[in-house]
Amino acid sequence: MLAKEKLERINILAKKAKDVGLTDNEKEEQKKLRQEYLNNVRSSFKNQFKGMTVIDPEGKDVTPQKVRDLQDRNKKH
Fold first, then answer.
1. Which of 30, 43, 34, 29 is nearest to 1 (CA)?
2. Are 52 and 61 in contact (CB under 8 A)?
3. What percent helix, strand, coil does the chain show, rounded to 5?
4. What are the tens digits of pLDDT across the range 15-70?
Protein backbone atom coordinates (compact mmCIF):
# COMPACT_ATOMS: atom_id res chain seq x y z
CA MET A 1 0.00 0.00 0.00
CA LEU A 2 1.26 3.44 -0.86
CA ALA A 3 1.83 5.73 2.10
CA LYS A 4 -0.98 8.15 2.87
CA GLU A 5 1.41 11.08 2.54
CA LYS A 6 2.35 10.03 -0.99
CA LEU A 7 -1.30 9.72 -2.03
CA GLU A 8 -1.99 13.16 -0.61
CA ARG A 9 1.00 14.55 -2.49
CA ILE A 10 -0.25 13.01 -5.76
CA ASN A 11 -3.60 14.74 -5.22
CA ILE A 12 -1.98 18.07 -4.32
CA LEU A 13 0.16 18.00 -7.45
CA ALA A 14 -2.82 17.06 -9.62
CA LYS A 15 -4.86 19.97 -8.26
CA LYS A 16 -1.97 22.38 -8.66
CA ALA A 17 -1.41 21.17 -12.24
CA LYS A 18 -5.01 22.03 -13.07
CA ASP A 19 -5.01 25.36 -11.25
CA VAL A 20 -1.65 27.00 -11.97
CA GLY A 21 0.65 24.43 -13.54
CA LEU A 22 3.70 22.65 -12.22
CA THR A 23 7.39 23.42 -12.23
CA ASP A 24 9.74 20.99 -13.95
CA ASN A 25 10.75 19.55 -10.57
CA GLU A 26 7.12 19.08 -9.59
CA LYS A 27 6.34 17.39 -12.91
CA GLU A 28 9.20 14.95 -12.33
CA GLU A 29 8.01 14.29 -8.76
CA GLN A 30 4.47 13.73 -10.02
CA LYS A 31 5.71 11.31 -12.66
CA LYS A 32 7.67 9.27 -10.10
CA LEU A 33 4.78 9.20 -7.62
CA ARG A 34 2.32 8.10 -10.29
CA GLN A 35 4.65 5.33 -11.45
CA GLU A 36 5.08 4.11 -7.87
CA TYR A 37 1.28 4.16 -7.43
CA LEU A 38 0.72 2.19 -10.66
CA ASN A 39 3.36 -0.38 -9.72
CA ASN A 40 1.62 -0.81 -6.37
CA VAL A 41 -1.81 -1.28 -7.99
CA ARG A 42 -0.45 -3.80 -10.50
CA SER A 43 1.29 -5.77 -7.79
CA SER A 44 -1.84 -5.85 -5.66
CA PHE A 45 -3.97 -6.97 -8.60
CA LYS A 46 -1.48 -9.70 -9.50
CA ASN A 47 -1.49 -10.98 -5.91
CA GLN A 48 -5.28 -11.25 -6.02
CA PHE A 49 -5.00 -13.43 -9.12
CA LYS A 50 -2.51 -15.72 -7.43
CA GLY A 51 -5.17 -16.83 -4.98
CA MET A 52 -8.04 -17.05 -7.45
CA THR A 53 -9.86 -20.23 -8.44
CA VAL A 54 -12.79 -20.21 -10.88
CA ILE A 55 -15.50 -22.84 -10.37
CA ASP A 56 -18.29 -23.32 -12.90
CA PRO A 57 -21.91 -24.07 -11.89
CA GLU A 58 -21.22 -27.80 -12.13
CA GLY A 59 -18.43 -27.52 -9.58
CA LYS A 60 -15.55 -28.03 -12.00
CA ASP A 61 -12.36 -25.98 -11.71
CA VAL A 62 -12.21 -23.80 -14.83
CA THR A 63 -9.45 -21.46 -13.74
CA PRO A 64 -7.81 -19.91 -16.85
CA GLN A 65 -4.43 -21.36 -17.78
CA LYS A 66 -2.71 -17.96 -17.47
CA VAL A 67 -3.81 -17.76 -13.84
CA ARG A 68 -2.66 -21.33 -13.18
CA ASP A 69 0.73 -20.53 -14.73
CA LEU A 70 1.06 -17.49 -12.50
CA GLN A 71 0.17 -19.57 -9.45
CA ASP A 72 2.69 -22.27 -10.44
CA ARG A 73 5.47 -19.69 -10.87
CA ASN A 74 4.62 -18.26 -7.46
CA LYS A 75 4.87 -21.72 -5.82
CA LYS A 76 8.35 -22.27 -7.27
CA HIS A 77 9.72 -19.07 -5.71
1. 43
2. no
3. 70, 5, 25
4. 999 999 999 999 999 999 999 999 999 999 888 888 889 999 999 999 999 888 88
Name the CA dihedral angle for 14, 20, 25, 31, rounded to a multiple of 10 degrees: 20
DSSP state of 52: -
pTM reported for the whole predicted model: 0.70
Q: How many helices (H) and strands (E) does the chain have?
A: 3, 0
Domain ranges across the chain: 4-76
**Identity of the amino acid at 52:** M
| Phi, psi for residue 61 in degrees, rounded to 5 | -75, 115
Would you identify the CATH topology of the domain 4-76? Helix Hairpins (1.10.287)
Length of the chain: 77
Handedness of CA 18, 21, 26, 27 (dihedral sign): positive
